[in-house]
């Protein structure tokens, strides 16, 4: 599978995630779009790791494994981030009874 | 068209369609469900590339734990379609254009990349196997592994502290 | 001798500083002692220097104090030049100045001690500046003194500053001086450009080699400066208005010293003027015209000081006539004698005004002869001197100028004699109206009439003696050969001029005739005026043509219409249009622009997360574009 396909697929998913972040006002939906972006990146990393493996398998049997390990750690971080982020959103809801990010401008005062 | 190709195209189209539905849905619960489908398709891509470990982890962690968490919070706040505040129409268009511009730029930048002949190996490859991944993780990357456990610990503590009344 | 030269201007400077800085703590007598004392010391030192200078074959001595300006090829040292001419002026300035200072201690005694000290500090500063002027060894030092005396003139004319009219008179004097100074300054620049130096010795040595056009230009510009300072046409109108100052000030500045600065300057630069016949003609004509014009105005003036002021302008005109026809010695001689009798006239007028408690209108005086005997006698002697009656001093000096004028052109002589006749006429009109006849003032004034105290009368007597015998240093050759001591004394200064252009000789017989004619005509006018005005003084307002004369030929009004008003219009235009609309608009506009800009930029900080993220994405896109596509 030519790597270009994976690259374009990943870019498409990523940009859809960006558009989602810019377009929606609900904090939770924005969070989900961030997860979408992370996943797009993960996909691309795995694709590159396979590409490297294909190119260098002769010399080094473990070539390209770094990509997948990196994806593993990204998932770790994403999990932690989601837990803390949702806790914050729950707190925000408790205070303002809404999850509209525009209300965050109250932080200004 | 071989099976691999067909599967690839099918999974890609499904992924993109679901992603768009995530962004467009009014009801947050629907967005969550579409997102789960995205995750499943991406996991499908992983299997296609023989990254078995990541396939399993993706499904369990992302589609399983994280999405459940999202659903839980949505239910907690009792959100439904008509309580969603609407953004200013112009800002929405601006957002879409922004995202689209990014898409265009990246695509244009990488279009001529001389990589057409590089292949992502599908179907085979040892490196996706749990055994090999585990060996590399615990030999070369043991320090980040341990530190990530500290990260989890701090995230847990933080979540509890923030959530306390 | 060069070691004591710098002391001469130093003492008046010290007097200025002491009286000026300590004016609130000094008593009046102490102020007077400091003020007059420093002058006396300067006079004594000048006499000592004079003793050295008058020896045969004395070469000019340059005393360098320090390097004043030194740029590239131009070197202007702060130096004094001591030669016969400068020492003569130093003696006049310090000597007559000292007498006037003594006079002032009594005349100004009604002022409070703080203002009394202010007066004396200004006077000392004036003497210092005037000494710089005459002692300077180059045009720049002379110019420093020139400006300094202009400043002191302003300060002293406007001494009673609470009166707005006096302040305006002071401003007028200063501004007209300034106009002349501009000409002087441009002349100096031209000198630097032409000769590469401003030192007198160097410039005058190189003058014969300079092109006539340059010399004519330079001398004309310097003469413009002289018209401002020495009150010639067209810059003379400030001098009659300057009578607003105290009378001793008028005596010192506007009779004896400051106004003679122009004469000094031209006498000093005599070689340049001799080599520019065009300028000489201009100088002579303007001098003569001024002499006649001022004399006509003086005939109809009724303020005692105004008559003397116009008389000063007129006599200055004679001095310039002398310079214009090449009689440099004659002009300097007339400066000297004029200093004596004009100072005497002013001081006498001050004595009269003092006795009349501030009254200056001569129509309200009369018969003062018996009340003020000393003043009367000295005033009379001065009148004889100014009228040119032999053997008083004025006769010798004026006659020398007139005969030199005749040698140049008989027309000069005839007009000059007409002016001399008018001088005799108006002076004796003044004398007769003031001192003869019966008293026309109020009873109250008559009670207060008394002779002035000695501090006033003694300077009067000294000056009277000088006015009588002062002419004897300049006896013309036809009367007694080799008796013209002044000419011998000044000959080294004017040697270059005399050799470049020997003045034409007049036959002895012709000269006797000229002398007799001028003296005789003057005497006739004296007797005529004496008789006319002692019996029937002019009491009413002037009528007809007399009104024109009394109104100074309406010259002031003319200047106002032609110059003052247009300048005011232009200034107003600049103020409202250029200043307020344009420049203010620009400056305020910058401020407003910044305020507007910051208001707009502040809106970026909205606190909306979505906005921030949008900006981030857009910036990212832009950066990508720039990085990947625009930088090939």
Describe this structure in words.
The complex is a heterotrimer of chains A (109), B (165) and C (632). By secondary structure, chain A is mostly helical. Chain A has a single domain (3-101), classed as Helix Hairpins. Helices cover 76% and strands 0% of the residues of chain A. Chain A has helices spanning 3-23, 27-56, 65-96. Chain A is elongated. Chain B is mostly helical. Helix content of chain B is 75%, strand content 0%. Chain B has helices at residues 3-24, 28-48, 52-77, 89-111, 130-139, 142-163. The radius of gyration of chain B is 20 Å and the shape is globular. Chain C has 26 helices and two strands. In chain C, strands 1-2 form a two-stranded antiparallel sheet. Chain C starts with a helix and ends with a helix. Classes of the chains: A mainly alpha (109), B mainly alpha (165), C mainly alpha (632). Chains in contact: A-B, A-C, B-C. Chains A and B meet through α1, α2 and α3 of A and α1, α2, α3, α4 and α5 of B.
The succession of helices and strands of chain A, N to C, reads HHH
Helix content of chain B: over 70%
Low-confidence residue ranges of chain A: none
Domain count of chain A, please report it: 1
Distance between the termini of chain B: 59 Å
Distance between the termini of chain A: 54 Å
Order of helices and strands of chain B: HHHHHH
- Categorize the overall geometry of chain B: globular
Topology:
The complex is a heterotrimer of chains A (109), B (165) and C (632).
Chain A: H1 3-23, H2 27-56, H3 65-96
Chain B: H1 3-24, H2 28-48, H3 52-77, H4 89-111, H5 130-139, H6 142-163
Helix pairs in contact in B: 1-2, 2-3
Chain C: H1 2-5, H2 7-21, H3 28-53, E1 61-71, E2 74-82, H4 84-107, H5 113-135, H6 139-157, H7 164-195, H8 200-206, H9 212-229, H10 238-241, H11 247-256, H12 261-268, H13 270-274, H14 277-298, H15 304-324, H16 328-355, H17 373-387, H18 393-408, H19 410-435, H20 443-448, H21 454-469, H22 485-500, H23 508-535, H24 545-550, H25 555-602, H26 609-630
Antiparallel strand pairs in C: 1-2
Helix pairs in contact in C: 2-3, 2-5, 3-4, 3-5, 4-5, 4-11, 4-16, 4-21, 5-6, 6-7, 7-9, 9-12, 9-14, 11-16, 14-15, 14-19, 15-16, 15-18, 15-19, 16-17, 16-18, 16-21, 16-22, 17-19, 17-21, 18-19, 18-23, 19-23
